[in-house]
Structure formats: structure tokens, C-alpha cells
Predict the structure of L-xylulose reductase.
Amino acid sequence: MDIRFDGKRALVTGAGKGIGYGIAKALAAGGAETFALSRTQADLDRLKAENPDIHTVCVDLADWAATKKAVEKLGSIHLLVNNAAVVNVTRFLEIEEAEIKNIFEINVHAVVNVSQVVSKGMIARGKGGSIVNISSIAGRIAIGNVPVYTASKGALEMLTKAMTEELGPHQIRVNNVNPTIVMTEMAKIVWSDPAKSGPLLKRTPQGKFAEVKDVVHAVMFLLSDKSVMINGVSLYVDGGVTAV
Ligand code: NDP
């Protein structure tokens, strides 16, 4: 399946590392004028050095006003990937208010903020668009040692559906991609100990975790016109673990 994004402008949040980095590179390789947003300048400098065509935007998504301003400055965006997220390992009985606030600000509030700016532009242009939210298997199954993260992905699942309902009439599609473990820096915080990741691996029908490219391929499909009637779905890239 040949997927190209020539003539399209794309924005990827959390593109400084991991999955977002891979998505930004793939979009640029597919011909999209690509904007990579993240909060650590050194990561963006590395991305830019490797991919000079990619534009970089350094902003902290936890800052609503600064994020809104930065995204408004970009102008037309046809393809949006809300990928940035944070995680914290804790037990439910030990969750603190600051942790909930921080995780929800980035994993949920920022998705609303960035998507509002982008979809208002899409509506004004009248030509539709595609938004992919990077959720998780945690959007469907409880992951014990990350209860706030799990709750934030549950919220994202329903936010995507709510967005679908309101934006669909404008031909703006909104879908989730839900990976299992991909050994990025985030995953290492939670899963680097095989004693923790082992049971999930054992339950996975395909017997392996995902790689960045597996997630990237799903995102490219949902961003592209090949999925033009697919709207409001959660596409699990999980080797079957949530199916059994
Ligand atoms: P990483 O931690 O490797 O990368 C996340 C990126 O998001 C980093 O560049 C980070 O920047 C950026 N980011 C985080 N907070 C902010 C912020 N406040 N403002 C701007 N940028 C920010 O994560 P992954 O690549 O692993 O995860 C990407 C997505 O995939 C997330 O939505 C995650 O929930 C989801 N996912 C990941 C899985 C996995 O196993 N890796 C499994 C299931 C879902 P910085 O480092 O500077 O903070």
C-alpha cells in the first residue's frame, strides 16, 4: 500500500524521542511538511540534525497558553498526532494530587488544547483532516502499577469518541492507536524489570512486544486517505494481548 502525504502539513507532539520521533520521521519521509513538537530542545536539535526538513517547536504541553500560542503560529495543519504523554509508577493508595494534575495536563488536557487549535483551522478550510491520538492497551486493560496513566488513557479513549461525534460532520476523522509495550524511555520506567513485563509477555498471543515501526505503520494508515471511512476506532498494536 503506497501511502504519501505530499502537500500535507503534519504536527506530531512528543516528537523528541521514542514513538513520536519515529512518527515525525515517517511523515517527513512520506512527503508531509512536518512539525515536531516537544519540550527538550536537545532532542529537537538531534531530530533536526538527522532530518533537516522537519520544523521543530519547543514548548511544554503542560503550559496551556504557551502551547495554544505555539500551535496557532504554525498555520494550516492537515494531519495531527497527539503522541506526547507521561507516566509515573505508583500504587493507587499512594497517588498524590500533583501527580494526577501533571499526568492529566499532558495526557488529556493538552490533547484538547492542541486539537482545538488544529481542528478549528481544519473547519475553517473546509477540507477535513485526520487526527490520531496515541492511547495504549491501558485504554482497555488496567495496568496495575500506573493507575493514573491508565485512567488518563481511559479518558483519552472517550475523548476521541466525543471528538469524532463533533468533528465528523466536518470530515475530520479522529482515531486512537493503542500500542502494547514498546521499549522506549517511557516503557523502561515501567517495564525494564523482566519480572514485571514477563507476565504481560506470557499473555501475549504473538509472544512479543511491539517496535516503534509497528506503531508508526498503524498511525500512517489512519492518517492517510486509505482509511477515509475509519473514524472513532481504537486500533490495537498489541500482538493480541487485549483480545484474550
Ligand atoms: P517517550 O517518553 O519515549 O517520549 C515521549 C515524548 O513526549 C518525549 O519526547 C517527551 O519529551 C515528550 N513530552 C512529554 N511530556 C511533554 C510535555 N509536557 N511537553 C512536550 N513534550 C512532552 O514515550 P513513548 O514514545 O514511549 O510514548 C509515546 C506515546 O505512546 C505516549 O502517548 C504513550 O502513552 C504511548 N504508549 C507507549 C507505550 C510504550 O510502551 N512505550 C505503550 C503504549 C502507549 P521529554 O522527554 O523532553 O519530556
